[in-house]
Design goal:
The complex is a heterodimer of chains A (308) and B (280). Chain A is α/β, with parallel strands linked by helices and 308 residues long. Chain A is 33% helix and 28% strand. The chains are: A alpha/beta (308), B mainly alpha (280).
């Protein structure tokens, strides 16, 4: 397991920020999702040993976050959400410096700094001072410093925050490469749900400091196979009423019906179709979006423009 | 976009230890701070303003002594007046004002601490940067003068060794004490200009107020309030400067300086520890 937490909680004075969390997260790419103030950053900082838990314990990469914080931070790369760069340094100087702080010898740190700056697309700008960088370039430097020491685990806190659409796409592509091709585990903390799909395999949703759900993203989005999607030609309302009269719940989502899989099997749907003079044009396993999943698990109403 | 990502893995044995990580903080920050124009200017002027009068005094003393070795007390010159103090205040403010405030302003402190670096290590390395810059005017001119005077035959080996040791000892005490003051005041804000102004104003006002109260009340004990007066007292004692009239007790002055240094270092540590939690 990458992370094991037992009753992990954190209070700031009287303010309850997180927990108690008891969970196990596997190696791989993990999305840490939640609204602002859900406790995502607190969770990440607890995992790095930068904060002491109020109660409970956690291990990351087999190391206790309280007792082995220094040893742990050698193995972790951290990309904070906020601005954190030293403006008077050059990109390569800064990333190299961060490598040295992780224990790399100066020559190796410099060599790695060049490599990772090329990886994040800052090869041409690496000798410019960070003060002259755009927001997108600074985000890339933040990512570069997080991976310069080749950590097996990267904690990325809102890496696409503040980026324009093109910059966001490029950052997501970098994160995708990091997650899929380098063999590193990443924890991607974000409140932008669309950032998660395509990069992460595992999802942890936090809300008000609680873990409201976690599991393999694919399984969570498929609703555990308990729902099917049906496209109807004809009177959809009559079809839904007929289903309701049989105790089967249906929901209209983007011109399709999402139906709880009937205990009697799909055959009953064809009976309802015959009865209501409608045609079933498509039937398949229902898959929800990350946003729908999120809204369901945190019990938030969908946005007004939603199709349901 | 990049064409490829670094695929090779670093071996664990390539990782250096704590001492090297601290050295990296020191070296990079010393270069960043020391290369600032005003710091360079005042360090050079401070060095010259300390070295030349001291060298002239040692030479004159030896000359007036009929060629015999200059006395140890002659080397106390930098601690007799306020010239060195002014440069110490200026450099403390210029080099120390932003030493933590800049990291708080840019929030780069969170990146330092996300590495295998403790808060204590961070503060020690940052304090060493300010101390090293202050040492350029508090230690280097003195020891250079001693070496030059010894080579030129102005002092005998005994006086030279004693003066060297006192400059080193008092200089280290001075640089550590003023670094501690700078570190604490710099940790109170995320704006280096405010911190710099605060350091300069506080040190200056503290010394002036201590002098005024002491003069008005006729009680020299008020001078213990001023770190500069305390350090001057310790230096005078170690340089065997004859005491005339009421003076501070060197042991008490030393205790005040050491206590102030430790107290402010601890306060800085507590301040930053608590702030990490608050800013979360």
């Amino acid at each position: 397991m990458l992370i094991e937490a037992t009753g992990l909680s954190k209070n700031y004075g009287r303010v309850h920020a997180l927990g108690p969390l008891s969970l196990e997260l596997p190696t791989g790419s993990i999305a840490l999702v939640g609204p602002n103030g859900a406790g995502k950053t607190t969770f990440l900082r607890l995992l790095m040993g930068l904060l002491l838990p109020t109660e409970g314990a956690a291990t990351v990469l087999g190391r206790d976050v309280v007792m082995q914080g220094l040893s742990l931070r050698k193995q972790v790369g951290y990309m904070p959400e906020h601005e954190c760069l030293i403006p008077e340094m050059t990109g390569v100087g800064f990333v190299s410096f961060m490598g040295r702080l992780s224990g790399l010898p100066p020559a190796i740190a410099l060599s790695r700094a060049h490599d990772v700056l090329q990886f994040v697309g800052l090869r041409e700008e690496r000798y410019r001072k960070i003060a002259e960088y755009s927001l997108g370039m600074r985000q890339r430097v933040k990512l570069a410093q997080a991976i310069v020491h080749d950590p097996p685990l990267c904690l990325l806190d809102e890496p696409t925050a503040g980026l324009d659409p093109i910059g966001r796409e490029e950052m997501l592509a970098l994160l995708g490469t990091l997650a899929k091709k380098t063999g590193k585990s990443i924890i991607l903390s974000t409140h932008l749900l669309e950032d998660v799909e395509g990069i992460c395999d595992y999802l942890l949703v936090l809300d008000s400091g609680r873990a409201v759900t976690h599991g393999l993203l694919k399984e969570l989005l498929s609703l555990g196979g308990t729902a099917i999607t049906v496209r109807i030609k004809g009177d959809q309302d009559a079809f839904m009423v007929a289903l309701a009269s049989r105790g089967i719940r249906a929901q209209l989502v983007a011109q399709e019906l999402r139906i709880e899989r009937p205990s009697e099997g799909e055959k009953i749907l064809f009976e309802v179709a015959r009865e209501t003079h409608t045609q079933i044009r498509h039937m398949g396993r229902s898959v929800q979006s990350v946003e729908e999943l999120f809204l369901n698990v945190v019990n938030r109403p969908p946005p007004p423009s939603g199709g349901s | 976009m990049a064409l490829s990502s670094p695929r090779y893995a670093l071996e664990d044995e390539t990782r250096l230890g704590r001492r090297d990580r601290l050295w990296a903080i020191f070296a990079i920050n010393f270069r960043l701070r020391g290369s600032r124009t005003l710091v360079t200017i005042f360090a050079v002027i401070g060095f010259i303003a300390t070295f030349i009068p001291l060298m002239v005094t040692v030479f004159t003393s030896q000359l007036l002594g009929g060629g015999s070795s200059a006395a140890l007390s002659v080397f106390a010159l930098p601690y007799n007046g306020f010239l060195l103090f002014i440069f110490i205040m200026l450099l403390s403010a210029l080099a120390g004002g932003g030493i933590i405030a800049d990291d708080l302003g840019s929030k780069s402190i969170s990146l330092y601490l996300s590495r295998p670096i403790t808060l204590g290590d961070y503060l020690a390395a940052k304090g060493a940067v300010v101390a090293a810059i202050l040492g350029l005017i508090a230690i280097v001119p003195g020891v250079v003068t001693v070496l030059v005077a010894f080579v030129l035959g102005y002092v005998n080996v005994t006086v030279a060794a004693e003066a060297f040791a006192v400059y080193l000892g008092v200089g280290i005490l001075l640089t550590v004490a003023f670094s501690s003051i700078a570190l604490f005041l710099s940790s109170l804000t995320d704006r280096s200009a405010w911190a710099a102004a605060g350091i300069f104003a506080l040190l200056l006002m503290d010394d002036i107020i201590a002098g005024i109260i002491s003069g008005v009340s006729g009680n020299v004990s008020w001078l213990y309030m001023s770190p500069w007066e305390d350090l001057g007292c310790v230096a005078h004692y170690l340089f065997s400067v004859p005491v005339t009239g009421p003076a501070l007790n060197a042991a008490v002055a030393l205790a005040v300086v050491v206590g102030l240094t430790i107290g402010l270092a601890a306060a800085t540590y507590v301040r930053l520890s608590s702030m990490e939690l608050v800013t979360e």
